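FIELD: query
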Amino acid sequence: MTLAPQIELSIVMPCLNEAETLAVCIDKAQGYLQRSGVQGEVLIADNGSTDGSQQIAVEHGARVVDIEQKGYGNALMGGIVAAHGTYVIMGDADDSYDFSKLDPFVERLRAGDELVMGNRFRGGIAPGAMPPLHKYLGNPVLSTVGRVLFRSDIRDFHCGLRGFNRESILSLGLITTGMEFASEVVVKSTLGGLKISEVPTTLDKDGRSRPPHLRSWRDGWRHLRFLMLFSPRWLFLIPGMVAFLVGLLGTVALSFGPLVLGTVGFDVSSQVYLAALTVVGWQAVLFALLTKLYARHEGFYLPRSRAFERFAERATLESGALIGLGLVAVGIVIGIVQLVAWSGSGFGAQHPVDTMRLAVPAALALMLGAQTIMASLFLGILSIDVRRA
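FIELD: result
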């Protein structure tokens, strides 16, 4: 009995009506496998083509997997799941990537790298292959955002040609269905501690006569939205802390009287707005902390620090509720002081500015306390141990 050779590499191409360029992409991939001696397969993850792409793929020796759920991410995940190779190299079927030159990817994968990204800016971008909007704004900006938020060394976050260890990528629990899948792979690989490298690759002008599926502003926003939502520290925690501290310090300072900075004066009307800023900032801080605690509880990949881990160990319903009750008590005490002062004047007319100067911080303490107590109650719900299927 002769055992079938184990497939080392699956070359996966998502496909939606790519009849014009699919054959040349498959032929290049098959040529690479024959030339290199790599035991592999070419797999087409078809996302509902109606132009005969499936038949073209079969005629050129590729395996076709039908993916019913629409979307770039869905097509690729379907292909990755169906792949037989230890390693997967994915790339678009529009003839913009050269599947005959995959040696750098295979070399790094065999060396133990779990994600190998192509870098088009290092390898070369043919004239007309990338719109100026993408080349000089979209890709550099989004890649910079990704590097800053997730401390990644990858300089071309959205290169469509990349290779990876199939089991390592499947272990990340990738969930996005659209173009942001490209960002999710890099972000979760980074947060999951996978060994990542980058190799030069080229980008040619695609061979299709029709417009690409990519929509610059829509898909760019989807990438940016994903990057920001996966980093609550930068989206909520840091802006929230700045707003909270500025608002709180300003509110407390104005409790002792008006302030003049240069030619600008601040009084109780400014104090009201500063108190509102404090509440919004505190809400953002609580939201960021609860998001990260929820992610920690559910096993999601989100950036964490030692400081956060120490906080997570101490964050309980009881400790949060005590802090909230303390803030409520501060508000009540200030209110009682004002009530006693009012009674001393026979409950007569009060000076509105002087009254507001203390009423605003009292109301602020009550609101912050209530927010903290409710956030602690939600934390208590998150902390309940349950049996999972």
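FIELD: remark
Strands lie at 9-15, 40-46, 63-66, 87-90, 115-119, 162-165, 196-200, 259-261, 264-266.
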